[in-house]
Design a protein that fits this description.
With about 350 residues, the chain is an alpha+beta fold. It has twelve helices and 13 strands. The strands form three sheets. The protein has a seven-stranded mixed beta sheet with strand order 1-9-8-7-6-2-3, with helices on both faces. It has a four-stranded antiparallel beta sheet with strand order 5-4-11-10, with no helix packed on it. A two-stranded antiparallel ribbon has the order 12-13. Strand 10 (about 250-255) and strand 11 (about 260-265) form a beta hairpin. It is globular, with a radius of gyration of 22 Å. The N and C termini lie far apart (about 45 Å). The structure holds iron/sulfur cluster (2 copies). One iron/sulfur cluster binds near residues 244 and 315.
């Protein structure tokens, strides 16, 4: 654990920006916040509440070319990744990236995702300002003790840095020698994390997250899916803003002469009407209620079955704010189910 003053931290960020790496950090965007390429240290905001979009587009771009090909069987895999530093990732977004790391490296190893991910150094930061819809405390994602290269905690007169990996050590070397954090610094850091563990909870979940897969086992035919979906626009905003939604569609563009083409993928969303349309124009999830249910089953049943019980909702609260008819809040649905069918 190291300590760095605010001035020295700003110098460190400047050194990063002029290095060979691409540096992305949280910045103000009108009255909200967004991740974006950082041009000067003064633009970095570690006191933000939540960003409009999570940093997932840096690990999984909204659209990317996977390969190009030519008649005759030649093809080129397009794997392009350079060193990138993500500055200011909140714990819940970090958990989401770590979940994607597991999902993209098991079964079908995704060479494109993993090549990019290996080049990324994550400088996470503890939450300094709770957002109005966060419920990370309920989901166990308000604080983290692993998964980052460096974790920053604002302790009032400077930052405590937990430098956890070789990538983190290589990065922080740009700041020159730093003093160890004192006992008082560590106590302040602990106080920030204890507070966040309890208080990032605008929508408290009435059970432990680990109970959700069991709850959903008994809720498949519950009327709530139909009720909630009645006002759903199928706009997909809840998927778009979600740090754990990673579904994509793969398509081919073939040149007019039919001699070459490229294969690309782009984000998709399970709430969109054509998400489940397959050959023959058959849509196996045509009903809005089925799509609405699928999203919440995916978060709390299907993904946990793949990655050791981890719930694929990290409580960032973005979907709550993004949904115009106000039906996307997972906690509202899970709590209503708990109230109606109880715990067994
Ligand atoms: S489901 Fe909503 S609250 Fe949960 S991680 Fe996704 S956007 Fe955030
Ligand atoms: S739940 Fe809300 S955000 Fe999601 S698709 Fe329906 S209307 Fe859009």
């Amino acid at each position: 654990m190291k300590k760095i003053s605010q001035e020295a931290f700003a110098q460190f960020v400047t050194a990063l920006i002029v290095s060979e790496r691409q540096v992305v950090g949280v910045q103000a965007k009108d009255d909200r916040f967004a991740f974006g390429p950082l041009e000067q240290a003064a633009d970095l905001r570690l006191d933000y509440d939540v960003t409009i979009l999570p940093p997932k587009n840096y690990v999984l771009p909204p659209r990317e070319t996977l390969l190009t090909y030519e008649v005759g069987g030649t093809y080129n895999s397009m794997i392009e990744a350079g060193p990138l530093v993500l500055l200011g990732v909140h714990p819940y977004d970090l958990v989401a990236i770590n979940q994607m790391d597991e999902l993209f490296s098991q079964d079908q190893y995704d060479a494109h995702y993993m090549a990019r991910r290996k080049q990324i150094t994550i400088v996470a930061c503890d939450v300094a300002m709770p957002s109005k819809n966060v419920f990370a405390s309920s989901m166990g994602t308000a604080v983290v003790d692993k998964g980052y290269d460096i974790l920053i905690t604002d302790v009032g007169e400077g930052y405590v840095l937990d430098v956890a990996t070789d990538k983190g050590r290589e990065l922080i070397a740009l700041a020159g020698p730093l003093p160890d954090a004192s006992d008082q610094d560590l106590a302040r850091r602990q106080a920030v994390q204890d507070k966040n563990r309890k208080e990032l909870n605008r929508h408290p979940l009435e059970c432990k997250p680990s109970y959700l897969p069991k709850l959903l086992e008994r809720a498949y035919d519950h009327p709530i899916w139909e009720q909630k979906a009645q006002t759903c626009f199928s706009c997909g905003s809840c998927n778009l803003v979600c740090p754990t939604c990673y579904c994509f569609d793969v398509q081919d563009d073939v040149d007019w002469d039919l001699k070459k083409g490229c294969r690309w993928r782009a984000w998709d969303g399970c709430l969109l009407e054509n998400f489940a349309t397959v050959a023959g124009d058959h849509n196996f999830r045509k009903r809005r209620a089925d799509r609405f249910r699928h999203r919440l089953y995916r978060k709390a049943k299907y993904v946990p079955e793949k990655i050791g019980g981890q719930i694929a909702c990290v409580g960032c609260g973005r979907c709550v704010g993004a949904c115009i008819p106000d039906i996307a809040n997972p906690v509202a649905v899970y709590n209503a189910l708990l109230e109606d069918i109880g715990m067994d």
